[in-house]
Amino acid sequence: MIIVVVIIIIIICIISIIGVLLQIYACPIYETMDTAWGRKQEGTWSIFNFLERFVTRVCYLALTTFVAALLPFFVSATVYIAYSVSSLPHPSPPPYSPTLTQHISVARCTWC
User: What is the domain extent for residue 54?
Assistant: First the structure.
């Protein structure tokens, strides 16, 4: 019984931490969407502005969650994007590129 309670508490803590961090890091995006699509002449809590904030934030969270859930299925693309972002300017093609390893013999390929 105690183990179940501890597991539930850990799950609640993880969900709350993820929820708080997501809201913190998404604040600039939310502010941009509110500025671009909100009606400035109406109040902050008008029906239109409230529904606009609610719909855009839910759609943004759904999109980012969907993309994050798809990342494990596209490992090579994820690694390629991470490599391209982490090594600017590009000194060479990434070492896991299948086209690169086809043209290099196994004796010369040190990363295979």
Answer: 2-88
Q: Beta-strand (E) ranges in 1-112?
A: none
| Residue 84 pLDDT greater than 60, yes or no | yes
pLDDT band at 112 (very low <50, low <70, confident <90, very high): very low
CA 30 – CA 19 distance, rounded (Å): 15
The CA distance from 5 to 11, in Å, is: 10
Cis-peptide into 89, omega within 30 deg:
yes
pTM above 0.70, yes or no: no
The residue written with tokens 């994820």 in the block is 78
Q: How many domains does the chain have?
A: 1
Residue 100: inside a domain: no
